[in-house]
Amino acid sequence: MSGLNQLALALDHAALTRQAVAQLSDQQADFDVETAYAVQRLLVQQRLRRGARRVGMKMGFTSRAKMRQMGVDQMIWGRLTDDMRLDEGGELALDRYVHPRAEPEIVFLLKKPLAGRVSAAEAMASVEAVAGGIEIIDSRYRDFRFHLADVIADNASSSGFLVGPLQPASTDVANLGIVMRVDGRVVQAGSSAAILGHPVRSLVAAARLAAEAGEPLQPGDLVLAGAATEAVALRAGMRVSAAFQSLGAVSFQVGGAES
How many domains does the chain have? Predict the structure, then answer.
């Protein structure tokens, strides 16, 4: 375990210092998916020791567009902590990240525990509300290049998130139009149907994966269902917004120095 701890500490240090590191798979020949999730757990434990609190999970690579962009072929997941949450309408400090990008998400807020193999109906019965959101992804690897196990270890690249206005759980999220803008200009457009055909399928997968990891989803947890479009690289001064049919909008300003 000491070797895995060293890998987790290296990724944690890279995030804290905003200094990219070499891929872990380049340093360890047998670095596979199972090992990567073990490193991810240890990485997030470092944050918890500093006072962060677990608040849910994010699903990754849930759309063909995202798989194609990142050159992978299977769904992954990561852990969300409260220190990752950004204020809707607020400012993102660019120098807190290595090479951040933003992508629109469908967000589920849970009111009941959700664990194991469940149906779509059972998953939705555990939902308190739904919302549009934006995830900030930021690989800690040099040149934003990695293999599947690398990105899993790096908490599936999850670095921040914003949640828009909460809407009733009864809101149909099956095929919602999504438009992402930078400084008022449309840069991405898509549909929530790109998320596994229906975002609830991502929630179903989240329930199973979290339970298998021994961390079943709890009341109050947030689940980011995955991006429906490709991610947008962030630069200082940008105003980024995502508008969701039936769910409203969420936005932030990209600043420079950390506040």
Answer: 1
